[in-house]
Amino acid sequence: MPEFTVKRSLTASYENEDENQTVVVEVVLVANNLDELFEELNDADFDDEPCINFQAESELWETLKEDFLITDSNGKELWRNEEEMVSLKQRGLLDD
Question: Number of H helices and number of E strands within the chain?
Fold first, then answer.
C-alpha cells in the first residue's frame, strides 16, 4: 500500500487563551489511494499530546487538528489547505 505524509497543525485551547498552544507535526499513513486516505483522516482519532501545554493552569477545553499538506512517498504534493498554511506562516509556525 502507498504511504502518504500528512502535515497538520494541532491546537490545544484552554480557558485562559494565553495558555493555548499550536504545533505542526508530520505523520505517515498508509492507504490504497487519496480518497481512502481522506476517509481515514476524517474518521481517525489523533494523538494530541504534542500540543498539550503541561504547564497550563486553566482547564483544557479542546484539542483540534487541521491537516494542511499531503504528499506521496516521492514527496509529490497531492493536496494542500492554503488558508491554514497562510495562517501558520503568519503565526511563525511554518517556514516559507
Answer: 2, 4
What is the tally of structural domains in the chain?
Answer: 1
Specify the length of the chain in residues.
Answer: 96
Residue 32 lies in a domain: yes
Q: What is the pTM of this model?
A: 0.90
Domain span at residue 19 reads: 3-74
63 in any annotated domain: yes
CA quadruple 46, 73, 68, 43: dihedral, nearest 10: -40
Q: Cell numbers at residue 10, please?
A: 494541532
What helix, strand, coil percent values describe the chain, rounded to 5?
25, 40, 35
14-54 pLDDT, tens digit per residue, is 999 999 999 999 999 999 999 999 999 998 789 999 999 99
Report d(CA 87, CA 93) in Å as an integer.
9
